[in-house]
Give the backbone structure.
Amino acid sequence: MLEPVKKNWRILLLVVVVVGATVALFAPQFGPQTAPGENATEAQQGVTNLQYGLDLAGGTRVRAPLLGYTATGVDFGGDTPVEVEEAVAAELDDTGARNVGTYVEDDARQVEVTDASVSEDQFRAAMEAAGYAYEDVRPGVTPETRDLAQEIIQGKINEAGLSGGSVQQVQSITGRYFMLVEVPGEGREDVVSLLEERGTVQIDIAYPTDNGTAVEEAVLIQDDFENIGTATQREGTTQSYVPVTVRNTAAGGEQSPAAGFQQAVADRGFQSAYQTETDRCEYNTETGEIGNDNPCLLLTVDGEVVNSFGMDPDLAASMASGEWAETGSFQLTTGDFATAETISVNLRAGALPAELDISGQGTSSTISAAQGESYKTYSLVTGILAVFAVAGMVFLRYREPAVALPMIVTALAEVYALLGFAALLSYPLELAVIAGFIAVVGTGVDDLVIIADEVMSEGEVNSRTVFDSRFRRAFWVIGAAAATTIVAMSPLMVLSLGDLSGFAIFTILGVLIGVLITRPAYGDILRRLLTIR
Amino acid sequence: MVAIEVPEINYTEYSNRQLVAVPLAVLVLALAIIGGWYLATGAPADLGLEFTGGVELRIADDGGDVEQQIETAFERQPDSVRSIPADDVYVVTFRAADDDPEGLANDLSTQADEAGLSTEAVDQVSPSFASDTARTAVFGVGLAFLGMSVLVFALFRTFVPSIAVVASAFSDLVIPVAVMNLLGIQMTLGTIAALLMIIGYSVDSDILLNNSVLRRTGDFYESVSRAMRTGVTMTLTSMAAMIVMAVVAAVFGVDLLRNIGIILAVGLCADLMNTYLLNVSLLRWYKFEGVSR
């Protein structure tokens, strides 16, 4: 029972891989991930689970760096990050502490400026004037700012309901980071304006009156925030929060925003309403009414209420006593992390922490859906014809179907397995990937030719030993050739050169599948056909 | 039915010097073309949008005199206008002459709309991003070539056969670049991929030849003709695939696939010459004269 399995395991392995690829391509479990508010059928493009990239589906791709400069290896000289930010900002004309950030991780201390109007020289001068020694200044922003920008862009894409939109950070050879935004099915101008768009955000207070709920608007507006933190999860709980700081200074003896906010909160009776942790805000976003008698803070973006909050008893008490305005910081707490993230994004009203420089140092490209659709057909036709060309050549050379037919079938199985991989990884197919597939057919058949020629040289194959020794000899050449292809292609895989990493990944994957699975299987098939007569 | 018979070349009739002369002459010619191109234009090849920066629009050809409209629609003179009949589009390219290609892209697509042209695709690359890309590409090709060379030396561990492979791979890379210049094919990311692919493809037949001569028993000429039979079949098969891909993609106007096809076809052609003239003669010299020294 086990003997035939042992003898033909190479062929069986190929069959298993082909079956696996079929499952990955057609089974609904491996279908593409759905965007929020989208069902599985909508996410699926065509009958297979294959995903298509912008080239083949249409859409817009924008790649641009975040503007700013970062000083690395900064010696804070014992100052806190906030003090450093303020000191550096003070040395820059027209630049607030909002546009200066710090990043501390282990010993790596960095200071960044995200105001596009500050030049590198000005920043260097400000760092020196503020008295902080640094190692170097590089263009770009800190990792933290990049992550935040990525989060905000992703938030905008999700909010606009653009399914399949993605944003990632890519690094160029010079070490510069770029944000890569891809939105299928949208035009260039729509995407660029989405990225640049900025809403107005404010915090209102809703409070109960005898005639229902009334709202005191704009107790805090966007400019009142000194700092808006990133969403953070409380350890060991699902609770998350966004830390914010309200400015507690004002020009010319006016009331500071923090003091004004504190006054408004105290006037609306938050302290008496929120006595214990069980007191909740029951504001209903749909009706605009409060369910109980507790006043609520409302976060509104472009005039629409997006979140409502009650207040922690301690915070309400410190506001009522007037102590709070000295620090001006509080935390907006939510039940889960995702909501906290949305709030952090909402508070910024979609404003990126640094300017995305699409025109100066970026690139963008758009392909219409119709164009994508025709590219899809064309590349399919091109691929099929290329396979026919290879098949024709092989038949002309060998004129023996027993050798040539399995050769073509094996080469096709290789491409099929690759498609399965693409579906499994949800890797979007691009024109460059298609070119990679065609290259794989080319190299694949080359190696099969080497096997066939080697095995059939020097007369008849009359025993398994003869076959095996010849097959092994052929395999040395194939292995060496495969290794050179992989070495030649690997730089493309990691360098940031547009779609070409897809080409490289699939060529290398194809070579690996070929050497490890399909070529040994072809050897087995050939052995059966040649030795058993 | 026509069969492909790989011709047997009688190498004994030619001296090593005669055999080497042809590929060397072609290589020198190719280098001269690239050098001349560099002196004339400041770049070794005709650089595409990705390496120079600029804006490219694909405009739908919905009948009528679109070409005429394109002439008048834009405030700036396009650097090139290409028609792709199979796809019913015109590709209009503007090189980056100013610092604000994003604004230019917006202006151009607005101008196209106003002229009643429908834009199918817009590509915009800023000059500084483009020069970054160019550097990355050169670095990538260099790294790939270096990696391949190291691997080849590690595989054969003898100087002459290894350098023969590396030399013919170098020539396989240079000749397609020169041909690109002559045919007016732009250097784009797709062609860079094709050049890297040549490194992978072309070394196959060289390795096969070296393996056959160095690691197998038998007469030198027998080994060469055995390796040739397999190697030429391999190269011709790949070439067939690439030529078909180039022709079909050219008809459909899928530039990326067309360029990859053309470059690989030329590179494989160069590889036939380099492997069976340059590499063979170096190996013969090594086998009959070099070893005994």
